[in-house]
Amino acid sequence: MAGKFMQAVWYTSYGGGAASLKHVETPVPAPGNGEILLKVEAASINPLDCKIQKGMIRPIFPRKFPFIPVGDVAGEVVEVGPGVENFKAGDKIISTLGTAGGGLAEYAVAKETSTVQRPSEVSAADGACLGIAACTALHSLTISGGLKLERNEPRSNVLVTAASGGVGHYAVQLAKLGNIHVTATCGARNIEFVKSLGADEVLDYRTPEGAALKSPSGRKYDVVVHCATGITWSTFEPNLGPTGKVIDITPDGGAFWTYAVNKITFSKKQLQPLVVSTPNAKKLECLAKLVKEGKLKTVIDSSYPLSKAEEAWAKSIEGHATGKVVVEP
């Protein structure tokens, strides 16, 4: 598509939030070796995208400007670059562009190694949401937490904080696939929603019981998937089992300090900061299969056209979306 142009949204410096997003016309990118050009049908905004804009992970992932944000997409293959063997024009796909971004546009370039076929039973919007959010939930439970997505005996106990959010709502569902007892926290308005995902116990985080994270049935947690902020180790520690783990997907300086102290003191209870869980084709394929089979569902809080991408960005920054925020060019 050399010489053709597309609509896109970019920003030209760090900071500025939704107000700094600019609608532009820019050349359609060309796929390089091992790359795929796709027409974007849906893109999912993640907290990581907003952190990149704020410059919070600048030392790890410095940006070149102008920058088209968002890495989780689904769409249709338009063209393939040299060396691509598993995809052809017309294929429906799910892909993660990683921190390279490019998703807030009509077309984007993805690596073949980070792309999977999208089953016909999985919508573009549902597929686009499986990248960072669902992969982080999967990684937290199975890799960091050591649990299996099959019957766990003896039955494990898991706590999911901010369970109505992007990562949280996937974590609840995935844990239930493993016959795990799930306690969850969320705001009062989302209690019935989180119960509908399969949670066995749901706490309103604004109540004293919810703030203390205590299981109503008196259980101690084997794994905590911590998707919220502002909860200290001293709150988690008494609620953990003898070898309980807190997988902190929103770590701050205190989390890294706790991690170091636990290691130095050989504590059997651990806090593990998870800065970025990189999605890959294997995880995406597993998750897409679960959606196809009806075992996992994506809950979409709201969907916006590309022309209103700044509204979607603001909704994501707000941090109170139930499920995922999607842009559909």
Which short descriptors sum up this protein?
Quinone Oxidoreductase, Chain A, domain 1; 10 helices; 27% strand; seven-stranded mixed β-sheet; 329 residues; six-stranded parallel β-sheet; 27% helix; Rossmann fold; alpha/beta
Explain what you see.
The protein is an alpha/beta fold and 329 residues long. The protein folds into two domains: 5-129 and 298-328, Quinone Oxidoreductase, Chain A, domain 1; 133-273, NAD(P)-binding Rossmann-like Domain (Rossmann fold), CATH 3.40.50. The protein has helices at residues 47-54, 124-128, 130-144, 166-177, 191-196, 208-212, 233-236, 253-264, 281-292, 309-318, and strands at residues 5-10, 22-27, 35-45, 72-80, 92-96, 107-111, 115-117, 157-160, 181-186, 201-204, 221-226, 240-248, 270-273, 300-305, 324-328. The strands form three sheets. Strands 3, 4, 5, 6, 7, 14 and 15 form a seven-stranded mixed β-sheet that branches. A six-stranded parallel β-sheet has the order 10-9-8-11-12-13. A two-stranded antiparallel ribbon has the order 1-2. Strand 9, helix 5 and strand 10 form a beta-alpha-beta unit. Helix 3 (130-144) crosses helix 4 and helix 3 packs across helix 9. The two termini are 18 Å apart. The mean pLDDT is 95.
